[in-house]
Design brief:
Blueprint (H helix, E strand, L loop, with lengths): L1 H18 L3 E7 L6 H11 L4 E6 L6 H7 L3 E4 L5 H11 L4 E4 L11 H10 L4 E7 L8 H18 L11 E4 H4 L11 H11 L4 E7 L13 H19 L1 H30 L5 H40 L14
Parallel strand pairs: 1-2, 1-4, 2-3, 5-7
Antiparallel strand pairs: 4-6, 5-6
Helix pairs in contact: 6-9, 8-9, 9-10, 10-11
Length: 332
């Protein structure tokens, strides 16, 4: 009888383990010796059943040693840039739910279970942790303005479901991670992830989370103008690739307006005298008008190509099941 009870408990435990979603905490790192130990410890306490992965990106300090001592599984990515690290993590790690967080101890690990629970219970593909703070040193005015401007551009171009596009604290489903064709190499990875979710019309949500200053000894890798310019160029590139008709339509409209402005005096002279004395202007206006039509044609053709790419990405996304429900009452 006792053996039967023990066997039943073992089977129940096995069934519970099978029902529990596999959660992986992904921490890309570069020179975060001062913070990484606490980040690993905090997320281990917040998500006791999760595996914590730290991928080091050529750190010159003791980041690797500290992360290993804290109990994280550590790997190396030699290609410099956060985008390269995240792409490697998404390719290497198998899980049902992925928690992506920076290794600088600026995000609140205590809300991680709530973010994971929201993703699973509402069958979402991305939950974004929108940063909220009153600490000026944690979120400098230049960064605030740049984030507002760049996020505003993405909201206009791709959808307005995300209010803090550059947050480094996100939770993803497996089908998001395994259908994400990343191309960004640096900090533009957050922009690319946001556009990927919005362009494929994935179910997403955003939750306000506390954001704090870095601990002593930890320095930010962000450069306001350099990284802002990189992200701006990435947004333009993504618009060209994901919204080519709008992109080339803007160019076509601009060229046509320029052609009309140059041609206006030519038409005025012709209407008054019946002659075309400004032949160079007429030729220039005709050439610019032809470029306008050519740009519009490129947009129409590429829009068809983009539609095919969108369908392929959507089918890849649908190959994976939605996040699994948790067993009742268990801890994540």
């Amino acid at each position: 009888m006792t053996e039967a009870i023990q066997v039943g408990r073992i089977e129940t435990t096995a069934a519970t383990e099978a029902a529990r979603p596999r959660v992986a905490v992904l921490v890309p790192c570069y020179n975060e010796e001062a913070a990484i130990g606490k980040v690993v410890a905090d997320f281990r306490a917040s998500l006791p059943n999760a595996e914590i992965f730290v991928y080091d990106n050529n750190s010159t300090d003791r980041t690797v040693e500290v992360a290993k001592a804290a109990g994280a599984r550590v790997a190396l990515e030699p290609r410099q840039g956060k985008g390269n690290v995240v792409r490697r993590m998404f390719a290497d790690i198998e899980a049902d739910v992925y928690v992506l967080v920076d290794g600088d101890d600026t995000y609140d690990a205590k809300v991680a279970p709530d973010l994971v629970r929201k993703l699973i219970d509402e069958k979402l593909d991305m939950v974004n942790g929108a940063r909220v703070t009153d600490i000026q040193a944690a979120y400098r005015p230049g960064h605030r303005f740049g984030n507002m401007m760049l996020t505003g551009m993405v909201r206009v171009l791709f959808g307005d479901l995300i209010g803090d596009m550059l947050s480094g604290y996100r939770v993803f489903s497996r089908r998001f991670v395994k259908s994400f064709p990343s191309i960004a190499g640096g900090f533009g990875i957050e922009t690319e992830m946001t556009v990927h979710a919005l362009q494929l019309q994935m179910p997403v949500s955003e939750v306000s989370t506390a954001y704090k200053d870095r601990p002593p000894g930890s320095a930010s890798k962000l450069r306001t103008f350099r990284d802002g310019w990189v992200i701006l160029m990435l947004i333009i590139k993504l618009m060209k690739e994901e919204r080519p008709l709008a992109f080339f339509g803007i160019i076509a409209s601009t060229l046509m307006l320029l052609a009309l402005a140059i041609a206006a005096p030519v038409f005025a002279d012709y209407a008054r005298t019946g002659l075309v004395p400004r032949i160079p202007s007429a030729v220039l206006a005709t050439g610019i008008a032809l470029l306008s039509f050519l740009s519009l044609t490129c947009g129409l053709v590429l829009d068809t190509v983009t539609r095919g790419r969108w369908e392929v990405k959507r089918l890849t996304y649908l190959n994976f099941a939605a996040p699994r429900s948790r067993a009742g009452g268990e801890r994540l």
